[in-house]
Specification:
Helix Hairpins; 76% helix
């Protein structure tokens, strides 16, 4: 009962019953949220693993084609093929169980391979491989950010649920049992006193 400021008497019993009902309802909602978040977390982790694999594969391909292009045309051929501006990314967000996280990402790459000055077919292939690697990197970054957001909320929700389950609800139940026992004793003593006063 430490930390609980319970009103005295029957008002205290009613107050504790209300608080206990609210705490149990809150725990039920948190457990439902945990179930939703656990399912979404599993899905997002699988997505992050797939996008990580795609990104690593496309990076390897981009490095391979870059090396081939440098060997055949020199570094200058790659500099001529460089786009005039950087890629742009648009993040699409979603919300699950109150958690906002990246759902998808669109990459806008500056130019098509046909618009650049390419000295050889290897430069064109290097450009295409780098475009794929940039898109895959953005998808992986969005998937990892989503996993981190859902993980953080899952951990915070689990801590809140454990606090209710292990601390708040047992404290309220103990206080309610204590006050009900005290009220029962008070009613019994009042009944005995009433019977003694009336002589029955």
């Amino acid at each position: 009962m430490a930390g609980l400021r319970v009103p005295p008497g029957r008002a205290g019993r009613l107050w504790l019953r209300d608080r206990l009902g609210l705490a149990e309802h809150g725990l039920s909602l948190l457990e439902k949220k945990l179930t939703l978040l656990e399912q979404e977390r599993a899905r997002l982790r699988l997505l992050a693993e797939h996008t990580r694999h795609d990104w690593h594969a496309s990076c390897l391909a981009a490095r391979t084609w870059q090396l081939r292009a440098e060997l055949l045309g020199g570094r200058h051929s790659l500099q001529l093929a460089a786009p005039p501006r950087a890629a742009d990314a648009t993040v699409h967000w979603t919300t699950t169980a109150g958690v906002r996280y990246p759902n998808d990402i669109d990459c806008t790459l500056p130019t098509d391979p046909d618009d650049v000055i390419a000295g050889s077919i290897t430069v064109v292939a290097a450009i295409a491989a780098h475009r794929t690697a940039i898109t895959d990197a953005a998808r992986y970054a969005a998937a990892e950010a989503a996993v981190r957001s859902v993980d953080r909320e899952f951990t915070a929700t689990r801590i809140r649920a454990q606090g209710l389950r292990r601390r708040r609800i047992p404290d309220l139940r103990a206080a309610l049992a204590h006050i009900e026992l005290a009220l029962e004793e008070q009613e019994r003593s009042e009944g005995i006193g009433l019977r003694w006063a009336t002589g029955t």
